[in-house]
Amino acid sequence: MDKKILKPLTFKCMRGFIPALLVLFIFAGQVAFGQASLTYLNVEGGYYKPSLGYWNNDSYLTGFDMKLGGGLYYGGGVGFRVYDSYFGRLSVGQFSTSDQSDPINLGGLSREEYLKIKIMPVSLDFLYEFQTLAKDKIFPYVGAGASINFIQRTYKRSANTGLDEEGSDTGRANSFYPLVGVSYNVTNYIDVGLEGRFPIGSYKQAFSTVTEDPNSFTVETVSITGPIVSLKVNLRFEPRGRRRSASSRYRGNYKVGRRR
């Protein structure tokens, strides 16, 4: 059957988000019990280009010359020193892309389409920061992360017959990614930097057909894989150069002597 006549129905979530959520809880527990120390607040703004391959290549959008592209990505979060140069980061971001068709005449019927996809990732990252010889000003880092992505689809259809239709639905998807970045120490308490990451993930969505039994449907995979490049600003709670284990703050300043 021609996929261009498929009508979006509802999301079928990608399996496996529970393990990612479990990791978030474990990390939060480590912070709560003093195994990690709050290090900085973070804000970022950049560009995200998810594939959205089904929508752009196989869906009914192709018949309306519509395309969902990349766009502004922004977010923020908090960073934790786990041990020395090892950090964790919890963050949330937001991205949306949309397109609207020009009116298309089909046998006297004029029709327009609008589609918007919004993605909100909640992420946990683990980072390792390298020490450099650039007078403690430049700090490259590498890492990896995982996200639970909350996805919303909004669509509208209008026709000159007055039979308009609109709606929205939501779903979730996991993504996993490597990341690399560099920070520049403006002051002991402010860093600016550039970061790139490449989320890999997808979600499944069920579609009913327009011309057949409404109880029958097919499932398509929609990729959200694609690069994110962003500028970051970190507002630090501890100055640069303080390199110690988070748990060390619980050690008293006692002199160890020989028992007599």
Tally of structural domains = 1
Q: Specify the number of helices.
A: 2
Distance between the termini: 89 Å
CATH classification class: Mainly Beta
State the helicity in percent bands: under 10%
- What structural category characterises the helix and strand content? mainly beta
Question: What is the tally of beta strands?
Answer: 12
Question: Any key phrases for this structure?
Answer:
mainly beta; eight-stranded antiparallel barrel; 12 strands; disordered N terminus
Describe the structure in your own words.
This protein has 260 residues and is mainly β. It has a single domain (3-239), classed as Porin, CATH 2.40.160.20. It is built from 2 helices and 12 strands. It is elongated and about 70 Å long. Mean pLDDT is 78; it is low at 1-17 and 244-260.
Topology (SSEs and partners):
Blueprint: E1 6-12, H1 17-32, E2 37-48, H2 53-58, E3 71-83, E4 86-100, E5 104-106, E6 109-129, E7 138-159, E8 165-187, E9 190-197, E10 200-209, E11 217-223, E12 228-236
Antiparallel strand pairs: 1-10, 2-3, 2-12, 3-4, 4-6, 5-6, 6-7, 7-8, 8-9, 8-10, 9-12, 10-11
